[in-house]
Automatic annotation (TrEMBL):
Topology of this chain in the membrane: Multi-pass membrane protein
Cellular localization per UniProt: Cell membrane
Role: Putative receptor for purines coupled to G-proteins.
Lineage: Eukaryota, Metazoa, Chordata, Craniata, Vertebrata
Main location class: membrane
Keywords: Cell membrane, Disulfide bond, G-protein coupled receptor, Glycoprotein, Membrane, Receptor, Transducer, Transmembrane, Transmembrane helix
Protein name: Putative P2Y purinoceptor 10
Taxonomic source organism: Leptobrachium leishanense (Leishan spiny toad)
Length: 323
């Protein structure tokens, strides 16, 4: 009787497949289009000496890596069948967390750099693009390695003939102590420290702007920096804070550390919503580029106007031929 009760407590919500498939369908087209355009504009038209552009390019790449895996996720949650190899399932699973933590790190780096150059403008003049490239490569290597345990935690019963994937995969049996140590480390490095750093950069940049308002120095540039840092903070808290607040308790449920049935249900019910919010960053990050980088905004508007003019001219020529 107790086992039946615990099974009911630990089973995920019935609607999670519908929630995942609907969210991913909504995200896919805007996310693919916005990040493709962002990558194109950032790489071809925006001056690379503009600070944080290299980090923005890497942020767009991180988003695209997740967006391109969404069709497979949509297919699975609509059909509940995984007809592909085990490796592809685990790769898509891995890309989800790679996107999440790479995005977090690049948002933090954008905030730190804009804050640092606002406080010390002379450092910005001496800063080399190769520094940003080296930092970005280091982030990819560290995050890539750090995210490997996420797919490796999944059930060892999963094989190439299995039709289950993603949320339907079980967890490997592990000792609670080392598992919790890894979870706490992930929460500290992937959430708590980034929260502190983004909050500090936001407050410091705002204080610097208020100080410069009194001295009437570089007000516009510092307002742009503050706008970018605040946008990073908003994206971070909307997309990643709910997931990480819930993640620790979700893992405690999986390892049966939390046994209260009501808490089980609350945590498991909130988990799919937090994962969906974490995926929305693929659509919100391009807004960061548009409203925070003036060169990016100008190029998007300019090329958008060119496309509209070409279409209008083609329509006019077509109508004149008919007349």
């Amino acid at each position: 009787m107790r086992n039946d009760k615990m099974t009911n407590c630990t089973s995920g919500p019935d609607y999670q497949s519908l929630l995942y498939s609907t969210t991913y369908i909504i995200i896919f087209i805007p996310g693919l289009f916005a990040n493709s355009v962002a990558l194109w504009v950032l790489c071809r038209f925006v001056n690379k000496k503009n600070k944080a552009i290299i980090f923005m390019i890497n942020l767009a790449l991180a988003d695209l890596s997740h967006v391109l895996s969404l069709p497979l996720r949509i297919y699975y949650y609509l059909t509940h069948v995984w007809p592909f190899k085990k490796f592809l399932c685990l790769l898509c699973f891995y890309l989800k967390y790679l996107n999440m933590y790479a995005s977090i790190m690049f948002l933090v780096l954008i905030s730190i750099q804009r804050c640092m150059f606002t406080i010390n403008p002379f450092k910005a003049k001496d800063w080399k693009r190769r520094y940003d490239i080296a930092i970005s490569c280091t982030v990819w290597i560290v995050i890539g390695a750090a995210c490997l345990p996420f797919p490796l935690f999944r059930s060892s019963d999963f094989n190439n003939s299995s039709t289950a994937c993603f949320a339907d995969l079980g967890m490997k049996t592990m000792n609670v102590a080392p598992a919790l140590s890894m979870i706490i480390l992930a929460e500290l490095a992937g959430f708590v420290i980034p929260v502190i750093m983004i909050a500090y950069c936001t407050l410091k940049t705002k204080a610097q702007l208020q100080h410069n308002v009194l001295q009437l120095q570089n007000i516009n540039e510092k307002r742009k920096a503050l706008r970018m840092v605040i946008t990073c903070a908003v994206v971070f808290f909307i997309c990643f804070a709910p997931y990480h607040v819930n993640f620790f308790f979700f893992m405690l449920v999986n390892f049966k550390v939390i046994e209260n049935c009501t808490m089980h249900k609350v945590i498991l019910t909130f988990h799919p919503y937090s994962l969906c919010l974490a995926s929305i960053n693929c659509c919100l990050d391009p807004i960061l580029y548009y409203f925070s980088a003036s060169e990016f905004k100008n190029e998007v508007v300019r090329h958008g106007s060119s496309v509209i003019r070409v279409r209008l001219m083609s329509r006019e020529s077509a109508s004149s031929v008919k007349s």
